[in-house]
Amino acid sequence: MASSSSGLTFKLHPLVIVNISDHHTRVKSQSQPPTPGAGDATSSSSSAPRVFGCVIGVQKARTVEIFNSFELLYDPSTRSLDRSFLEKKQELYKKVFPNFYILGWYSTGADAEESDMHIHKALMDINENPVYVLLNPLINHAQKDLPVTIYESEMHVIDGIPQLIFVRSSYTIETVEAERISVDHVAHLKPSDGGSAATQLAAHLTGIHSAIKMLNSRIRVLHHYLNAMQKGEIPCDHSLLRQVSSLLRRLPAIESEKFQDDFLMEYNDTLLISYLAMFTDCTSTMNDLVDKINIAYDRHSRKGGRTAFI
Amino acid sequence: MNVNSVDSLVTEIQGLSGSSQDLAHLNNRLKQSEDVIRSQAATFATCLTRIDPSIHSLGYLYILEACTAGAVPEAQANELIISVVRFIDVCSVEQILLVPDKFISVCKRLHEQVMKLGAPMRAVGPLLMAIRKIQTSPEHLTPLHPDFLQVCLSAKCYKVGYGVLEDDICEVDQPRDFFLYCYYGGMICIGQKCYAKALELFHNVVTAPMSTMNAIAVEAYKKYILVSLIHLRQFSTTFPKYTSSVAQRNLKNFSQPYIELANSYSTGNISELKAFVEANQEKFENGNNLGLVKQVVSSMYKRNIQRLTQTYLTLSLQDIANTAEISTPKEAEMHVLQMIEDGEIYAAINQKDGMVRFLEDPEQYKTCEMIERIDSSIQRIMKLSKKLTTMDESMSCDPLYLSKVRERQRYDLHDFDDVPQRFNL
């Protein structure tokens, strides 16, 4: 796919991505389970139905900002989206968000298909240049970026016939404060049936550990940089120094004696609890050991009765 | 090796004291000629002056051991002690470790000799050095430990002995060493007034595995009762479950008067206690425990005062004197003051109206020192936990244990799911 030359900048909000993925997951889990004979991973994913919907947002000059999305029903016989429903939804959204226009449509799948062009053309009467947002639901662990691609349509001359084809465009992710909170929440979802409290605690602590590790490595980079600047190996960059000093002034947040007292007390409490836990563990091991020694070596220990054997 | 002449032996020793292979070679040769050396110990004694103990420790040790093996006449005892002390001072550790039992027997002879001469102080330093040289690790209990502690006790050098007691013991060569070590160690701790450590050591003797009764355990049990009364202000006659059944059944029979003392202590009545001590004075004297018993009586006051802290928030000095059977309020004030200084109770004395207010433990756990203390405790307990887990695992693989468990399997098949089933006959 060639890349777009329209010069439009696309901004995608995480809400859209979450919506699309939610739609897909819902439909997939509600559809019929694959037959037991099909052990092939690819066959089960190809039987996952494609979902369709509309994306809405704002277009200001050369910037297209996609804010929200809603679902649409796809009619396979006519190979088009349900038009009346779309218009009804559009009216409802217009009442709440008067600024939002229909910017395009979305679907799931690995790659854009030929049939998609049909839908795309149908939408062209609402928006002369609709966008096509494609989400790839296959989880690819090697891939580090989001599996979301945005396509535009352009008129290209192929084999002498002018045709509309999809071209890929680049985009950035744009967040509002509220969205940041919800994305954070989604990222920290623990498996609800994730075994005992122990595994959940372990998952929670692992998350904290990796966050602290990343913080530590970044601070180390800054420290190294500042050291080099002090030695004179790198020219002094005052704006960077100002940023660093403002960062440092943010901590510690409070510096009063009462805070110190409370902080140390809580720290000591946590240490005491872990000490107590280790104590209990040690005592239980020792108890087992003593039982074993008594059984093995004490000739006159109780015969016949069973000792508590935990 | 022709050992018949002193010269040949000397040259041999001097020649083969170089590298470790030479030393092993020399060791073998000396072992072969051990009897010869021993029978002619007197003649060989002269060559001691010709070889240097720091370089030729192995040869020196063999000859020295032969010299000390027999009975030593009075006249030579002093010289012998000097030479042994000098040897311990300068000998090289690797050479000693080739024949540790010879070294130990030499040191034991030293110990005997100084005790005979009545000058235990002379052996304190050398024995300490000997222990450090022969120990494979700080947790290793050598046969020299109890001798060293006994010498410290006789010489009243409690502090030096106490330094050795601070190491935790994990490996023991001989059970008798362990018993003696804990017993003497407990006595040294009493001398240093560290009753907590003394209690721990006596507890170890009493609960150590033993197949038959031994006198050390009996004596230790008597002292254990007394120290428990002094330090903990109470005593329980139930034994923990890791005590051997032999001890559980027999120890009480040998220490009847002490148990009665503990019973009368728990009533809290000082005059009754004093009467009891008077009546049984010679029994306590026979066990050399009269001093401890007197300390028990004086600790009774402290016990009574401590019980008062649990009931009252404030109390007048007069009331304290009455309840604790102390003669005058002035004396009661002194007792309370002493206890506050020792950190056994938290109180404030108001001298104007003679009232004592009992306070809570002022420790708030919000200092950095507390963090360090807890942190170091956590580190220690982590090490201990690792040791315990390895011991537990090795115990589970012990064939004696597994055979006994298989016996019990006849009673119930479902209890012992962790015993591997494929070992079932």
TrEMBL record, chain A:
Residues 24-48 are annotated as: Disordered. GO terms for cellular component: COP9 signalosome; cytoplasm. One of its GO terms (molecular function) is metallopeptidase activity. Gene3D superfamilies: Cytidine Deaminase, domain 2 (3.40.140.10). It holds the Pfam family MitMem_reg. This is COP9 signalosome complex subunit 6. PANTHER family: COP9 SIGNALOSOME COMPLEX SUBUNIT 6, EUKARYOTIC TRANSLATION INITIATION FACTOR 3 SUBUNIT F-RELATED.
Automatic annotation (TrEMBL), chain B:
PROSITE patterns: PCI. It is found in: Cytoplasm; Nucleus. One of its GO terms (cellular component) is COP9 signalosome. Residues 194-363 form the PCI domain. It comes from the Eukaryota. Keywords: Cytoplasm, DNA-binding, Nucleus, Proteasome, Signalosome. SMART domains: PINT. The keyword Zinc does not apply. Belongs to the CSN3 family. This is COP9 signalosome complex subunit 3.
